[in-house]
Amino acid sequence: MTNKMIRAENISKYYNLGRLGSGRLREDFKNWWDRSVKNSRQEKEPRNHIWALKDVSFEVSEGEVLGFIGNNGAGKSTLLRIISRITAPSSGVIMGNGRVASLLEVGTGFHGELTGRENIYLNGHILGMKKKEIADRFDAIIDFSGVEKFIDTPVKRYSSGMYMRLAFAVAAHMDPEILIVDEVLAVGDAEFQRKCIGKMKEVSTQKGKTVLFVSHNMQALQSLCHRVIALHKGEIIDSGEPETVIGRYLKRERKINSFQEYEAIPYAPGNDSIRIKKVALLPEYVNDQEVIDIRTPVNIHFEFWYLGAAYDNLIAGVHLFNMKGECIFDVCSEGAMYTNGLIEGKCTIPGNFLNDGSYYISLVFVKDTTNPLYHFEACLAFDVEDYRKDTAWYGKWQGAVRPAFPVTLTTKE
Amino acid sequence: MQTQWKWKIEAKTRWFQWNLKELWQYKDLLNRFVRRDLIANYQQTVLGPFWIFLQPALTTLVYWLIFGKVARISTDGIPPVLFYLPGIIIWSYFSDCLNGTMYTFLQNSALFSKVYFPRLIIPLSAIVSHTIRMLVQLLLFTGIYLFYLIFTEAVKPNLYILLLPFLILLTAAFSLGTGLIISVMTARYRDLDYALQFVLRLFMFASPVVYPTSIVPEKYRFVFWLNPLTPIIESFRTAFFTTGPLHYKYLLLTLFSVTVILFTGLTLFKKKELNVMDII
């Protein structure tokens, strides 16, 4: 049987939301007074707190690559902080067998005034390596980073790319028993990312090391992990085969944001002119997993009651935003006269048009081309997953859109 | 089923769990931090490490002018330069160590929130690098002392000089213990910082840095000796200048209080090191 590398038993973690100011001393004193002097035990649970993790238990075996998924605030980071021994759980026990090194943020403890060489040693020791271990790998680290020319230059003179490469090279060569990789795919250029993934594969398959992997890149998770745990609001809600867990996770996420319907005018969002009856996102799935990827055409259906003055020139527009709040496109209907009543709208975002990422849609209703009637903001949201035939590279594809018109090359001479 | 785990974290850290063995495994890291401090501190300065000498030399000059020439405070018949130097060296060693350790959590929160290593390494490395600086300053003192010893008859050494390493150790332990206690407190109550700098300045004048203990009125002298730094500085002077008897009782008192403070500091630090990260 394989060795267990980490065992977490009923880990919970809460954070106090108390004031972080002048009231703290008094609050602390009061808490202490209540607890020790008045000896009131009934208030064991603190009042102002949020649970970041609730009763999380899991085990990781040697050589296993375990993935964690969950939306923001699901508790992934808190869990990794506890596993990395940065913070203690509020209750529960966690035990580990061997050095945990995280790529939570590479370059930890780098000092600008020191040279690359000095920093390799400093950083290596911070990450728990012995002097000899670093000396043995020194050449490999420099090779991997590609900064050998500048190794005796203070790192504050490095470009940010060189800095990152050197930092990652140290982290990648420390050879821990348990490696934590968190969102590391988001940094660096394509060549560098290929190296990262390669290193991670090597660590897990060839050296049989345990890897904990957190990413929003479902494709990378699916191809690298042996098992995936899904977290939601601090609790484990799903775990098992990557494909199944990821599929269920995406479906769950989608359900929440892809449909709204209102029975009657008084309850519907809107105003005296416009009331929304229904908005729905209807993707035409091209894969059997029912996941929107970059190839999937997405239909948008909406119905609304028009209650404004009859015979006004009415326009309905669909705005698509990315998660940074940048408007990707703004399309609208032809202006026309409508009488009061229920009106249906349709719009299709073609496949092979949007890049992978998260998007949300707002509906806009305008009278006489310039008078806004109603904004139904952020009423629909969806994620577009990446899809590539060639999976050698997992880096983020550039650009707001990702159309599929061809670039042709012809040999001229 | 295996039962051996190499590490284990529970919600409550037990008292007196110091993990000295683990600390020893990280001695390379300690060395590196010391190197970093020493190298980074004097990068891009014109005089470089020469500042280590210059600081006490200039301070001595200023003190001699203000306290010796203007205020005419007694130096117990010892040449002023020699009289001020031990006090200045011990005092600045103490206050540097304290300043280097009492913000452990505040200054290293970025590092502490990313990677695990025994947190105690940081304050210990501060102590070591300040000790190195202090030893260099002692060389300056020794040089001047030898000059006076050979060319004048103003100073007389005695065997108590052998106590010097012990005095240094006491100072280090005192500042480490105090620094550890304060580091846990400054993490939680930031404004403590302002109060502390003020208290530290007062504390210097409560220690026999610019004056000998002999000018303190007899009635208050006992309170004065309770300050752990007083026996340390006075014993230093006694050893090198033979100014009076060695107050070994007070030195033992210092040993006792410093041990208590260091013990309290270590225990508190180890107990709180993980919890502190949630409130910074």
Automatic annotation (TrEMBL), chain A:
<dbReference type="GO" id="GO:0140359">
    <property type="term" value="F:ABC-type transporter activity"/>
</dbReference>
<dbReference type="InterPro" id="IPR050683">
    <property type="entry name" value="Bact_Polysacc_Export_ATP-bd"/>
</dbReference>
<feature type="domain" description="ABC transporter">
    <location>
        <begin position="6"/>
        <end position="258"/>
    </location>
</feature>
<dbReference type="GO" id="GO:0005524">
    <property type="term" value="F:ATP binding"/>
</dbReference>
<keyword id="KW-0547">Nucleotide-binding</keyword>
<comment type="similarity">
    <text>Belongs to the ABC transporter superfamily.</text>
</comment>
<dbReference type="InterPro" id="IPR027417">
    <property type="entry name" value="P-loop_NTPase"/>
</dbReference>
<dbReference type="Pfam" id="PF00005">
    <property type="entry name" value="ABC_tran"/>
</dbReference>
<keyword id="KW-0067">ATP-binding</keyword>
<protein>
    <submittedName>
        <fullName>ATP-binding cassette domain-containing protein</fullName>
    </submittedName>
</protein>
<dbReference type="InterPro" id="IPR003439">
    <property type="entry name" value="ABC_transporter-like_ATP-bd"/>
</dbReference>
<keyword id="KW-0813">Transport</keyword>
<dbReference type="GO" id="GO:0016887">
    <property type="term" value="F:ATP hydrolysis activity"/>
</dbReference>
<dbReference type="GO" id="GO:0016020">
    <property type="term" value="C:membrane"/>
</dbReference>
<dbReference type="InterPro" id="IPR029439">
    <property type="entry name" value="Wzt_C"/>
</dbReference>
<dbReference type="InterPro" id="IPR003593">
    <property type="entry name" value="AAA+_ATPase"/>
</dbReference>
<dbReference type="InterPro" id="IPR015860">
    <property type="entry name" value="ABC_transpr_TagH-like"/>
</dbReference>
